[in-house]
Design a protein that fits this description.
single chain; 545 residues; alpha+beta; Nucleotidyltransferase, domain 5; 5 domains; five-stranded mixed sheet; globular
């Protein structure tokens, strides 16, 4: 972006939409006030305020005009702030009615570049949001606000004229309505919510461009004092026309389905934990001394039957025991399904690389892959760490520099899985155990394990992006992990291979372990199939001659 500071104005022209610019105004009469928003180059050849984004005290939190006791400004109209002296784009005083600069001498205090980096467009043209050179120019900008039983839809053209008045369409009629009213040349923005993807799949083939807005980053909608369906539509359309919608990644269908299964498993685990906590509460309230081990282990079930509870308490204990037993069975079925999916396209190509990292098993590998989706969308490891919420927060302004805890933004299941992987790596791998002990000398144990989790996630990025082996790998340990992987799958998932052949198959895909035919783990010998035996079943692994 090109930035020009002219007096009290700070402009940033949007490169994707040259007819729009962001601005900040530091009012000369009240220097503690800051105004910000979007400027639009109008057809009369002047810049005008089309969307005030904020009206704040300098350095304070985001506050819109409506939160300061004033009504929200009208959209598509010129707005003159009462405490700001009008100033033209190039530093000249401006006529508030026409927006054109007045012919006066330039004040000495205002520096004007002879070749300013912000230029007004020569003509006022339609903004064309093209996905490629062959795309159809955008003619209508449409916003869709999703609700449980209906959708709110409205559309404007580039000049902010309503071409589709805001209206409610019942969810049961939306498919027919979209087929009749949406067409190529439309750009559609949808705010992400629970039922976004079904609507996205329905709308995307009908229009030229479809974007999904990040609800947490469209702050002027979430924080608006005057919040109605119609006003939300206006705000989304304004961001869409300016091409500044904070978009979210649209996952393909197989990623959505895996995320749904992982989320279902997460809810089952929470319900199991709730039932177990209730049983622990019964033990504590009755001042009982439970036997060693898990309270619902097979060896401890007879202990529960010997206890004398009241009729209602005994009834609740039996129900909780049944709930845990049934949900544990459902959870085991999900784990088996995840194991089968791990050896199927498209997950098999990635999970074999994750399985070589200490702490990773089938379940954690599938959870991490479901959250990441496509590793190529993260340019650097820091992007992936930020997506998981494992990046460190920081406050760096003026002379103040303060480091904060992790942001905890992004996908929480990815952050949880990586912390659990870190604990597994610390317990099983000498390298990560040494690193954890070193960090624990200067950090709290929780902070130390989070640091290990972040470093492991950086390793995940390098391994998945570059298809390279784990730096501190041990071939026998990886071979043992391949054996345990095979033990979690049934005959259908093994696809005609024995468990020994599957273990060798995983090693060959990593490019290691060609000479390994037997390993010793925990004092027990384990056999692995010879290389030629597997290559006869999987000839695609043979190196080219």
């Amino acid at each position: 972006m090109s930035v020009t500071r002219l007096g009290i104005w700070h402009f940033t022209q949007l490169p994707k939409s040259p007819s729009f610019a962001q601005f900040q105004i530091f009012a000369p009469r009240t220097p503690s006030r800051v105004y910000a928003g979007l400027l639009e180059y109008s057809c009369c050849g002047a810049w005008q305020v089309c969307y005030p984004l904020s009206d704040t005290d300098a350095g304070s939190a985001h506050l819109g005009p409506e939160r300061l006791g004033r009504p929200s400004p009208a959209y598509g109209t010129t707005k003159a702030f009462p405490s700001v002296e009008p100033v033209g784009l190039l530093g000249h005083p401006a006529d508030i009615k026409s927006g054109t600069p007045l012919a006066v001498d330039e004040p000495v205090s205002v520096g004007v570049s002879l070749d300013p980096k912000i230029h007004a467009p020569p003509t006022h043209k339609e903004c064309s949001m093209k996905s490629d050179a062959e795309s159809i120019p955008i003619q209508r900008f449409i916003a869709i606000d999703l609700h449980k039983k209906y959708v709110m839809i409205g559309g404007q053209n580039k000049r902010k004229d309503w071409v589709l008045r805001p209206r409610k369409v019942r969810m049961s009629r939306f498919r027919d309505w979209a087929a009749k009213n949406l067409r190529p040349g439309d750009a559609v923005v949808i705010e992400a919510t629970s039922n976004t993807w079904d609507i996205y799949d329905l709308v995307a083939p009908l229009v030229t461009k479809t974007v999904v807005a990040h609800p947490g980053k469209v702050r002027q909608i979430a924080e608006a004092r005057v919040k109605t369906d119609k006003e939300d539509i206006k705000r989304l359309i304004t961001l869409l026309i300016a091409d500044v919608v904070p978009e979210v990644w649209v996952p393909p269908m197989h990623v959505r389905e895996l995320r749904s299964l992982v989320s279902f498993r997460w809810r089952l685990s929470k319900q199991i934990t709730m039932s177990k906590n209730r049983l622990h509460s019964v033990i504590q309230s009755a001042n009982l001394n439970p036997p060693q081990g898990k309270i619902l282990a097979d060896k401890n079930l007879s202990w529960w039957q010997q206890q004398k509870f009241s009729e209602l308490t005994d009834f609740q204990v039996q129900l909780d025991q049944q709930i845990v037993e049934q949900l544990e069975a459902h959870k085991a079925n999900i784990d088996q399904k995840l194991a089968i999916m791990s050896n199927s396209k498209p997950w098999a190509d990635d999970i074999v690389f994750l399985m070589q990292i200490p702490g990773f098993g089938i379940i954690f590998s599938m959870i991490v892959l479901s959250a990441i989706g496509d590793i190529s969308r993260f340019e650097r490891p820091k992007k992936l760490a930020g997506y998981a919420g494992l990046g460190a927060g920081v406050h760096d302004s003026g002379e103040k520099h303060q480091e904060k805890s992790i942001t905890k933004e992004g996908r929480k299941e990815l952050r949880w899985a990586m912390v659990e992987v870190a604990w597994g790596a610390v317990r099983s791998d000498p390298y990560w155990k040494t690193e954890y002990n070193r960090l624990s000398k200067s950090k709290h144990p929780n902070k130390a394990i989070v640091a290990i989790a972040r470093r492991l996630l950086v390793a995940v990025w390098h391994i998945l992006s570059k298809r390279e082996p784990y730096q501190h790998f041990d071939e026998e340990i990886i071979a043992y992990k391949m054996i345990t992987w095979s033990q979690r799958m049934n005959e259908e998932a093994l696809k005609g291979m024995t468990r020994q052949q599957f273990a060798k198959y995983g090693l060959l895909r990593l490019g290691i372990g060609e000479d390994i035919t037997r390993i010793h783990h925990n004092g027990k010998p384990r056999r692995i199939a010879p290389t030629e035996e597997v290559l006869s079943l999987k000839p695609e692994l043979r190196p080219p001659k």
